[in-house]
Amino acid sequence: MLKVDNLSCQRSNDLVFKNLSFEVSKGANTEIIGSNGSGKTSLLKCILGLIEKNQGKISGNKNQLKKQEHFF
Which of 22, 32, 48, 52 is spaced 20 to 30 A from 64 at the CA atom? Predict the structure, then answer.
């Protein structure tokens, strides 16, 4: 399971998303949809630890993920 709780991310001076929360169960098919520039790629990069989050928690299998720790 992947759990994102109150995640916020800022790139340069632009707020990409703020207080984003969701859960994805193991084996679930999930889509991330949105218009160009809406933060889809930034969200995935933040979850993967490729860009730093401003606030929030990212947990995988009930363990909080730390900076640069790879979930997948």
Answer: 32
Q: Where are the domains of the chain?
A: 2-64
Q: How many residues does the chain have?
A: 72
Each residue's pLDDT tens digit, 42-56: 999 998 888 889 999
**DSSP result, 11-27:** ETTEEEEEEEEEEE-TT
Residue type present at position 47: I
pLDDT-derived band at 22 (thresholds 50, 70, 90) equals very high
Do the Cβ atoms of 57 and 23 come closer than 8 Å? no
Q: What is the dihedral of CA 8, 11, 15, 16, to 10 degrees?
A: -70
